[in-house]
Amino acid sequence: MTEHDEPAPRPGEPEAGEPEVLRYGPPPSQPTRPTWETPAWSGASPQQAQPRAQRSLGVVPVMTIALVTAIVSGSLSAVAVANLMRRGSTGATNEPTGSSVSQVHIDESSAVITAVARVMPAVVVIESRSGGGVLGGANGTGSGFIFDSNGWILTNKHVVEGADEISVKLHDSSVFTGRVYGIDTLTDLAIVKIDATGLPTATLGSSEELELGQLAIAIGNPLGNFENTVTTGVVSGLGRQIRAGDATGTTSEQLNNLIQTDAAINPGNSGGPLINSAGQVIGINTAVNQDAQGIGFAIPISVARPIAELALAGKPIARPWIGVYYKVVDAQVAKDLGLSVEHGVLIDKPESGAPAVFAGSPADQAGLVEGDIVVAVDGDAVDEDHDLSTRVLPHVPGDTVTLSVVRDGQTLEIVVTLGTLPETP
Question: Which of 4, 128, 148, 158 is catalytic?
Answer without folding.
Answer: 158
